[in-house]
Design goal:
The complex is a heterodimer of chains A (231) and B (118).
Chain A: H1 2-7, H2 9-30, H3 37-52, H4 56-62, H5 64-68, H6 70-75, H7 78-90, H8 92-117, H9 121-127, H10 134-143, H11 148-172, H12 178-200, H13 202-230
Helix pairs in contact in A: 2-3, 2-4, 7-13, 8-12, 8-13, 10-11, 11-12, 12-13
Chain B: H1 3-23, H2 30-44, H3 53-61, H4 63-66, H5 68-72, H6 78-83, H7 85-117
């Protein structure tokens, strides 16, 4: 009876949806930026699997219907990018600077970190795409031989960190220009940071979400080059 | 536009993305080929925004949920995860602050120069 329940793909899908719904409820109730629904959902799923003694492989096999939608969802990121193209064109010089500096500085810092701590290629590939949006970052990690599950963790934590640091850091460094603020947040902390940029203002939100998509695409091509030179 | 048609367009782009991934020798995920292809189709007007708006709105809305199974996979790599804890923390905290500082200050410098030239 228990086995039947656990092996059913409905159990895995329902657990996924239920955990995410609970995560969203916690975010709404507390209103805290750090209460990220995905993070909470993952913790709930792990706790339930451990409590019921279900292997992760059984759960993932059942939840493959959820994961299957990832590729179509990632493809659909083209739509928000398409809508932001006019904003990017209007601020071309700033946008190009922001995207290049964001992608390069992130890759250089991670390459230095890998060099100093002596990380192997698999570990470097895991951390390299940590500033880009999850859909693109996980793909990069897989292509370069990283550990996708850990890349997801690094990406969520980076997003939360960027979300929380955005205001104080902009104040400290006297980054007052809304276009600069938006590009900075999008390039460093993708969609989770963008939530904060949207709170700051319309220009910040638009520039941030445009930067997320473009930085993701540029990183797809930049990351393999960095792997070749540094790892 | 019928929802079935909308999903059909998106899935066709996914299929084309997988074909490109198999044919081209670049380390680019199939989904990214699909993303670029769909952007190209939108920019050239072959696919109109309203032809995919509802289906893609749904998929984008539930995107975060779709990562739960992959992220829970951290259970399977517990040992590696604990070994990577320190590099992960450094990659998250100081590196993110560093990326923000470098990006923000350089964009602000460009914006200032632009304003002066006007």
């Amino acid at each position: 009876m228990m086995d039947l329940l656990i092996n059913s793909s409905y159990f895995a899908v329902l657990l996924t949806i239920g955990a995410f719904y609970a995560g969203q409820a916690v975010r709404r109730r507390t209103g805290l930026d750090i209460a990220n629904p995905l993070l909470i959902a993952v913790l709930i799923v792990i706790a339930v699997l451990l409590a019921l003694g279900v292997d992760i492989e059984t759960y993932q096999a059942g939840a493959q219907f959820v994961s299957w939608l990832l590729t179509p969802a990632t493809v659909c990121l083209a739509l928000p990018l398409y809508r932001q193209i006019s904003v990017l064109r209007r601020n071309a010089a700033a946008a190009i600077t922001g995207v290049l500096m964001g992608v390069l500085s992130s890759a250089v810092f991670i390459a230095l970190l890998a060099l100093v701590l002596g990380l192997n290629a698999r570990e470097t590939a895991t951390l390299l795409p940590k500033s880009v949006t999850t859909a693109i970052g996980v793909g990069i990690s897989e292509e370069l031989g990283g550990i996708p599950a850990l890349t997801v963790a690094a990406i969520i934590l980076t997003g939360l960190c960027g979300n929380l640091m955005a205001r104080p850091l902009c104040r400290l460094l006297k980054i007052t220009d809304p276009v600069a603020r938006g590009l900075t947040i999008g390039a460093s902390s993708h969609a989770i940071g963008t939530a904060k940029a949207l709170e700051m203002g319309e220009v910040e939100g638009a520039m941030s979400s445009a930067a997320v998509a473009v930085c993701g695409l540029v990183t797809v091509f930049a990351a393999p080059l960095f792997m070749r030179f540094f790892a | 536009m019928s929802l079935i048609f909308e999903f059909g367009v998106i899935l066709a782009v996914c299929l084309a993305g997988e074909l490109l991934h198999a044919l081209l020798p670049l380390p680019v995920p199939a989904s990214i080929y699909g993303l670029c292809l769909l952007l190209l189709l939108l920019l050239t007007g072959v696919v109109k925004e309203r032809q995919i708006a509802r289906a893609s709105g749904f998929l984008l809305d539930i995107m975060a949920l779709l990562f739960v199974p992959a992220a829970a996979g951290i259970l399977a790599v517990r040992d590696e995860a604990s070994r990577l804890l320190l590099p992960l923390m450094i990659a998250v905290l100081p590196v993110t602050a560093g990326v923000m500082a470098v990006t923000g200050l350089s964009v602000q410098a460009v914006r200032r120069r632009q304003r002066k030239n006007k």
